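Sample log: SCAN box domain-containing protein.
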Amino acid sequence: MTSFQEPQDQAPGQGEGLLIVKVEDSSWEQESAKQEESRDSEACRQRFRHFCYEDVGGPHEAFSQLWELCCRWLRPELHTKEQILELLVLEQFLTVLPGEIQAQVQGQHPGSGEEAVALVEDLQKQPVKTWPQVRGPSHIQGAPGWYLG
């Protein structure tokens, strides 16, 4: 965003021809919003994946709540079928990977299935000793925090 301002410490008419231009970079706001969306999406995914049938009053309510949780996570009003399928298949792909490979790939936070496959292929070419150390457990065992962006 660009805005034009007269110098504040001069009276009108002084400093003629001097124009102050202020340029604001909103890229950090976009990145912050993207990170917040990712956290929200991950929280919705966790609520969906950890839903407990016994916590509700019957099958209709359970199904209804699962539907709502799934929609909050996948946001079908905003995302295409392909984006939603990409997310689901990526999540399942990362879930079925062997433990150490899974931890390494999840630590890289791949944004697509193609990126995840490339990471696995790269890891498989390297001796295990050269893999970077992964600190702490992943978000949830076998489940990354992905969002559609």
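Observation: The longest strand covers residues 2-5.
Observation: Residues 80-141 form a domain with the DNA breaking-rejoining enzymes fold fold (CATH 1.10.4020.10).
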